[in-house]
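User: Teach me something about this protein's shape.
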Amino acid sequence: MVMLADALVKRMIEVGALKFGDFVLSSGKRSRVYVDVKLASTFPDILEMISEGMAAKLKDLEFDRIACVELGGVPIAVALSLKMKKPLVIFRKEKKDYGIKGDRIGEVKEGEKVVVVEDVITTGSSALSAARRVEESGASVAAIIAVVDREESGRNFMSLLKLSDLIEAHDSIQPTES
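Assistant: First, the predicted structure itself:
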């Protein structure tokens, strides 16, 4: 697992998924570091590493379904669904007012155990919102897992990487001035 995490970090840095500057995160917080897992997940090798890493972390967990919130978690949840042969539900951020007017694509059945997948967790509000919706459907949350935990939520979420791992790796491969 360590080798996979190292390879994932290296590839994420190579494709420019770790950015430095002044950013406003979806949580509303400001940060000097942005982790663009959406960009990273557009590369098949990275997406495969993510799904393999998550599958390894979840291998001993009993669950029936994978859930995510649009948009960032979708490619990751789809890849994990394919890898683990588990059905998927995608929660919309807002209920549609056209078509079938749903708040999700797919279903959650009463009594199921569901794993919620996220791209990046900062405060955890998006993941916890999905977890609440799972529970409102009569199912239970078996786990919440993210590609990157920014370590700002005050909670211990399952993740493949911590933001500090990415920054440390980035700093170690940058040329130093002599």
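Now, about its shape. The chain has one domain: 1-172. The longest helix spans residues 44-58. If you'd like, I can walk through any region in more detail.
User: That's plenty for now, thanks!
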